[in-house]
């Protein structure tokens, strides 16, 4: 796990190439505190920079940027290639490598593979998480590539007439003279989703490379040098497409029995973990006590000869605390478990760090506990495995089955009546609905007991007028429902969620929602959150459930093996029950959150008021103050819970403040 950066400038810079590249790379020291390197091609005007967190081959033989044995290729690489020993064996049979290997790093294996097989064939062979910058000295071609599911970040674009790229935006901002303006279209998307979705970034002419893709640039493609014209996105090519995988899998579904499906998933998980548990440094795992993390840890422990180190954080506020469940699972499995009950002060102390950690407006408030558990793990290990991905692959989010049930019932009701019902729901404030819900909650099954039911009802009211299923899904994943009414001078671009051409051709609404989450929410929210929170303390995270072979198998499964009896992750649960008693797992799903709604009215009130003052919002000119101030006043009064909406604005304001 490392950080990479670089640039390709066709005009002479005001400072030496190596100085500029080193300055950019040094902004990523948290991603790679163990080593640093720069490589330049003076004639071409190209420079690569790297910061290394040593995980495999801790010797100088793993130093980057690394030049291939022939001298043709130079690479700066972030991530891990889990199948690189197998690739080495193949290469040795071809006569590539063999006794010429300088060390046992996966970086060296990558270079040999590119020389032997070429760019796209090599990318297709890789099992792992990665962002790659590869310079071909022979053809003078730069290739940028990203892993299939989007675990590792990679930004690129035009700044001051040069092509710039890097693991985080802070590296691009360090390029001499970087002055790219803020992209208001991206800001509108951020206000809807609480993150900036790919391929957009918060800056004009800077892009995120989508998962499973690569882009190549030649000198002809850099003809913008010396003019204000942007490089654009380039010709982005997919070497692996989840849409193609899912469509092919749906056409040829898994035909085995349920028992065979459980066996196969168990086998695939073990195969994934066999590669991801390899490290030359201490390794552990996050454990929340939920299905996903418990499955990962249970199999890790089954495959390990000694207790696995596991980590969880707890909160004294019971509605947010999962530590007791994690402890019970850890005790049953016999892991070496560490927990930390954090105080509100511990959590609040993270907030000033968020702009530097996330480097782009990002407002998933679970970023706070994710960073805290990363801090805890880093005290003992350098690598921690995570259970992310299970919800998107195996149908774990409540919105999948609740929205489906809702849509089926809505379809039987004429549209005018549905619109009338929506208005009726809005007649009662969310707080009133909360009181009514509490009065009747004793009669509801545990899986239907929800936090903040009033807000969820009001959110659902917006779906009653939906004309097709995706119109039900969009409000479920939206914060500000009309972001262009809040962001001044902005248009909201289309995304895979709003563009029918990018939808999955499938009759099951649940599967369509899972697919949209897997290509948007998963890489742009969940994986961003984990990557930045962990790399901020120089901790590598690995996500075994996102092995592409598991993803491909999951899409072959019939829906009944994912969602059953109003509950998701059926097949994953069956694997888990082989190792952990059912009674330790069966409970309502909890989010990994913090009590933001209470903090905004309490210890964060003064901070919030300063950032959301009407005078400041008017002066800065990004937002219309009226809807923001209205929600802030309603939140303070307790009439509504607008915490998530307000957090979006606050995180943008904090990010802007950090850029001054």
Task: List the defining traits of the structure above.
660 residues, alpha+beta, 6-stranded antiparallel beta sheet, 17 strands, 28 helices, globular
Radius of gyration, CA atoms, in whole angstroms: 25 Å
SS elements, strand count: 17
Cα separation of the termini: 30 Å
Note the total helix count: 28
**Proportion in helices:** 40-55%
Within the largest sheet, what's the order of strands? 2-3-1-9-8-10
What is the arithmetic mean of pLDDT? 91
Class of secondary structure makeup: alpha+beta
Shape: globular
Instruction: Characterize the main sheet.
Output: 6 strands, antiparallel
Low-confidence stretches at least 5 residues in length (pLDDT < 50)?
224-231
Specify the oligomeric state: single chain
Tell me the strand percentage band.
Answer: 5-15%
Detailed description of the structure:
With 660 residues, the protein is an alpha+beta fold. The protein is 43% helix and 14% strand. It contains 28 helices and 17 strands. The strands form three sheets. The chain has a six-stranded antiparallel sheet with strand order 2-3-1-9-8-10. It has a six-stranded antiparallel sheet with strand order 4-5-6-7-11-12, with helices on one face. A hairpin with a 4-residue loop joins β6 and β7. α2 packs across α3. The longest helix has 19 residues. It is globular, with a radius of gyration of 25 Å. The two termini are 30 Å apart. About 1% of the residues have low confidence.
Quick overview of this protein structure:
This protein is α+β, with helices and mostly antiparallel strands and 660 residues long.
